[in-house]
Design brief:
- By secondary structure, the chain is α+β, with helices and mostly antiparallel strands.
- The protein has a single domain, classed as Gcn5-related N-acetyltransferase (GNAT) (Aminopeptidase, 3-Layer(aba) Sandwich).
- It has an 8-stranded mixed beta sheet, sandwiched between helices.
- Strand 1 and strand 2 form a beta hairpin.
- The chain is globular and about 40 Å long.
- Keywords: Transferase.
- GO terms for molecular function: N-acetyltransferase activity.
- This is Putative acetyltransferase.
Length: about 180
């Protein structure tokens, strides 16, 4: 499993050469900035009970060290422009993984990077042995919701587990 976490891949999106690779401690500050700016850009930075306030935000590389978890960053010209994580869903059975902290810098919106990261998270969740992949999001992020639907995520009533994200009113689940 450890060698799998080390893989890196290049994708060409709209003429941009994007590298997707596992997070390193050197990426912590940059991905935290991408996440914070995404909340500001979407005018949702005032909300409580969202991943913006997760204690691990400042050190995501340390938050994804367990065997069935990982966080991957996307870089353009060695600058972090997005990321996504997968980990066991806290408070749920071991069959449930959670897609976490999928955020993109506004400079790379609309080029297909979100699709690549969702696809990666589904692939990794399967490799980690999860049977279900869960996510929570906000109504304000409707374009993301429609993208999740395209990947087979279905709306479910109520949350699963204990994510601590009480402001997220949309819960979705994909059978892997």
């Amino acid at each position: 499993m450890e060698t799998d976490k080390l893989e890196q891949r290049q994708v060409l999106l709209n003429g941009l050469n994007i590298t997707i690779r596992p997070i390193t401690p050197e990426d912590n500050s940059a991905i935290a900035d991408v996440i914070r700016n995404s909340f500001i850009d979407n005018k949702i930075d005032h909300l409580e009970g969202v991943s913006l306030h997760d204690p691990a935000l400042a050190s995501l590389s340390h938050a994804y060290t367990s065997e069935k978890s990982g966080y991957w960053v996307a870089t353009l010209n060695d600058q972090v422009v997005g990321g996504v994580g997968v980990a066991q869903l806290l408070g749920a059975s071991e069959e449930y993984g959670e897609m976490q902290k999928l955020y993109l810098d506004k400079s790379v919106l609309g080029i297909g990077l979100g699709r690549c990261l969702i696809d990666l998270s589904i692939k990794k969740a399967r490799e980690f042995g999860y049977k279900y992949l869960y996510l929570e999001t906000l109504e304000e992020l409707s374009s993301a919701v429609s993208l999740y639907e395209q990947f087979g995520f279905e709306h479910i009533e109520g949350s699963i587990g204990n994510t601590g994200h009480g402001s997220c009113e949309i819960c979705m689940l994909k059978t892997l």
